[in-house]
Backbone:
């Protein structure tokens, strides 16, 4: 397997004058972009930032961040991107945990950097008009271009993501060039991408989905169109202006695009391939996305930061809710929850924990200096996802929630995603999340948190569930009408905030409990 630097070089040689990256008015071809990357590596050399060193990046999706990512790949420096909303204390943790040699930041993250003692000891690359930098990104671009590129080997680390569970400090997920390249190649194949694709670079480059889009476009001499912050109106304008051919987004962003009042006037006809990952998409949203884009291909991609692909369903509209079958580089199983035994496989139709083969080419090897996290997630050659799900009779996987979010009510297991999908089909429901609240009688009470798009009450929603495929014990016994469903910056429903009461209720008479 090649390293990623060589991958970029191959694309520069294949199509030097093809457009590579767009950010506002800035447009660079592969040749022009590579020249900037080589100068940035020249600056790394002058600073003494060497192969194997970690560069922490606290940046939004802008061309400078994409350039730094690629410069790292060419130099063998390990890109360590973190969420730009980071606080100073968290930054102290990241700098120390990654053993960072330098940090790159911009105005949105300058306060966090200024407040971080650990970041204060590092060389600080300022992007844009960031205050507190020791060197400006523009100066890097004026250095003499480095020679002898690329420098990394396939088995070297390409990057280190951070993934945060609900408890404890974020875990470093180190990934090699080989794993990153294999994941990007599989992404190209599984999404049927062609040479010259154009994608909206809106999923954060500190998350696996953003980096996958970046690498997949480079493999194909495609175009990465930077979007620093998602807003439906400018995103739709970019789709039309830049003739975006594919979208790979979390379900929330599709929801927000479709909810925008100007969507019906927007020209989304260039988008032929639509994919989602990161969270399940409700049945209602699947239908609406299919209707709105009429795509050639609609892919449900189920994966994670650690492994990349678990499964793919290339017919997301035909079988909504199904995550399909194992990806090109993967094997998946559903096993009994509890014993952490990869051989305790359950029958089709039965719920269990989803596990994936760790020896695939896309996978990480272990968390960064976290043996206790390795011990929890890895058994033999298998990675325990912490997700619940089941196979249907066709061997297609359905992801139904997190093991920790499973509701046990009156001794029966209820998977939140199934209830959410049924409720999503009610026309007055805009968004919905289901969680278990403590209940004296039931142990946990199935509770639906609904953001309505039209006036509706609990009785109407209960009637909808009674007339659906949902078994009686799965019916929500309480409805709470909320202003918004709490989500993480990458679109995952934060059910623990619903359980702890950290949400805003809508003043609505419909907030009430149901009888059983
Ligand atoms: P991350 O590491 O941030 O990509 O999160 C991985 C987790 O996101 C998985 O373990 C699932 O819980 C969830 N996830 C990712 N893709 C999907 C999908 N297509 N359907 C359902 N859940 C998903």
Residues:
């Amino acid at each position: 397997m090649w390293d990623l630097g060589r991958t970029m070089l191959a694309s520069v040689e294949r199509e030097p004058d093809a457009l590579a990256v767009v950010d506002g008015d800035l447009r660079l071809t592969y040749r022009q972009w590579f020249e900037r990357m080589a100068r940035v590596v020249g600056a790394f050399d002058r600073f003494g930032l060497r192969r194997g060193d970690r560069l922490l990046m606290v940046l939004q999706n802008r061309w400078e961040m994409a350039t730094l990512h690629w410069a790292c790949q060419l130099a063998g420096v390990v890109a360590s991107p973190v969420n730009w909303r980071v606080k100073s204390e968290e930054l102290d943790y990241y700098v120390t945990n990654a053993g960072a040699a330098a940090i790159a930041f911009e105005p949105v993250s300058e306060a966090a950097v200024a407040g971080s003692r650990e970041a204060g000891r590092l060389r600080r690359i300022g992007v844009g008009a960031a205050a507190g930098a020791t060197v400006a990104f523009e100066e890097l671009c004026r250095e003499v271009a480095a020679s002898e590129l690329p420098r990394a080997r396939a088995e070297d680390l390409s990057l280190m993501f951070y993934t945060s569970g609900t408890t404890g400090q974020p875990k470093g997920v180190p990934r090699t060039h080989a794993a990153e390249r294999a994941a990007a190649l599989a992404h190209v194949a599984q999404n049927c991408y062609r040479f010259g694709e154009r994608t909206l670079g809106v999923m954060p480059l500190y998350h696996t989905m953003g980096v996958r889009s970046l690498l997949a476009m480079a493999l194909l001499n495609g175009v990465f169109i930077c979007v620093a912050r998602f807003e439906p109106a400018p995103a739709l304008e970019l789709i039309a202006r830049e003739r975006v051919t594919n979208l790979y987004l979390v379900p929330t962003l599709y929801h927000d695009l479709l909810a925008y009042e100007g969507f019906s006037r927007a020209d989304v006809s260039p988008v032929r391939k639509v994919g989602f990952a990161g969270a399940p998409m409700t049945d209602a949203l699947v239908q609406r996305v299919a209707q709105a884009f009429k795509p050639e291909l609609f892919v449900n991609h189920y994966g994670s930061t650690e492994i990349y692909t678990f499964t793919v369903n290339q017919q997301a509209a035909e079988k909504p809710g199904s995550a399909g079958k194992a990806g090109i580089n993967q094997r998946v199983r559903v096993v009994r929850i509890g014993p952490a035994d990869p051989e305790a496989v359950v029958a089709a139709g039965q719920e269990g924990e989803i596990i994936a083969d760790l020896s695939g080419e896309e996978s990480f090897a272990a968390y960064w200096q976290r043996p206790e996290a390795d011990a929890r997630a890895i058994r033999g050659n298998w990675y325990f996802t912490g997700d619940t799900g089941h196979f249907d009779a066709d061997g297609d996987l359905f992801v139904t929630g997190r093991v920790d979010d499973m509701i046990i009510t009156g001794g029966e297991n209820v998977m939140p995603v199934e209830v959410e999908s049924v409720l999503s089909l009610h026309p007055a429901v805009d968004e919905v999340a289901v969680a278990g609240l403590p209940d004296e009688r039931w142990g946990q009470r199935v509770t639906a948190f609904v953001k309505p798009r039209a006036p509706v009450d609990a009785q109407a929603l209960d009637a909808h569930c009674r007339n659906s495929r949902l078994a009686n014990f799965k019916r929500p016994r309480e409805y709470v009408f909320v202003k918004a469903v709490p989500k993480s910056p990458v679109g995952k429903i934060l059910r623990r905030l619903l359980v702890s009461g950290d949400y805003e209720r809508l003043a609505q008479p419909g907030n009430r409990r149901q009888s059983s």
In short: Residues 30-47 form the longest helix (18 residues). The chain has a mean pLDDT of 96. The radius of gyration is 23 Å.
